[in-house]
Design goal:
Layout (H helix, E strand, L loop, with lengths): L2 E4 L6 E2 L1 H14 L7 H6 L5 H8 L6 H16 L7 E2 L3 H9 L5 E5 L4 H11 L7 E3 L11 H10 L6 E5 L2 H10 L2 E5 L6 H6 L4 E3 L2 H10 L2
Parallel strand pairs: 1-4, 1-6, 4-5, 6-7, 7-8
Antiparallel strand pairs: 2-3
Helix pairs in contact: 1-4, 3-4
Amino acid sequence: MQLIIFDFDGTLVDSRALILECHRTVFTEFGLPVPAAQDSLALIGRSLELVLAELARPDAPVIAMVSAYARVLPQLRADPSFAETPFDGIGELLFGLSRRRDTQLGIATGHTSKAVVPALETLGWRDWFSTIQAADMAPSKPHPAMLLQALVATGVAADDAVFIGDTSFDMVMAKAAGVTGIGVTWGYHTAEQLTEAGADRVVETVNELRHHLATAP
């Protein structure tokens, strides 16, 4: 594989606590009922505006809520109780892949670039990625635009790329872009959901993912 693209939340990092606290803070600020955790987590991967519109009541000021979310996210992220935590073995996996001369790495996330780039910098991962595609640069997942843009940015053909994610939105996006989709089960959607969404392969551990990427043509 010449290009390996990763989703961020639920694939590289556990952001459950941060996302739920952001939702709680924003919905409370606007006097709206706080969504159930399972409802919030089920929508991770889509763009924030779509997520908030689905979780809030029809007359909710979604645009203002998006702005509030952008304000509270860095504040909460600075609190160790809520900061994203890499899944075990992910940092080592990314470092190893970044050393491969024939492979480029990418990100395709439902975050905005203003949200994901600082997170990558804090984790010390930013320089490992040749392309970062975010929600403010393309339509929301499962639209394939982010992956198609990553292919153009890196000059890699779809047949030589793979997208790794933890949600059905990720797998539908990969299929639509003509990219191999690998689903991981340590995130927010189940193996069954990933398979039904068209995953070409589903892995249950980081070690299994590492082995597959090491042996894939």
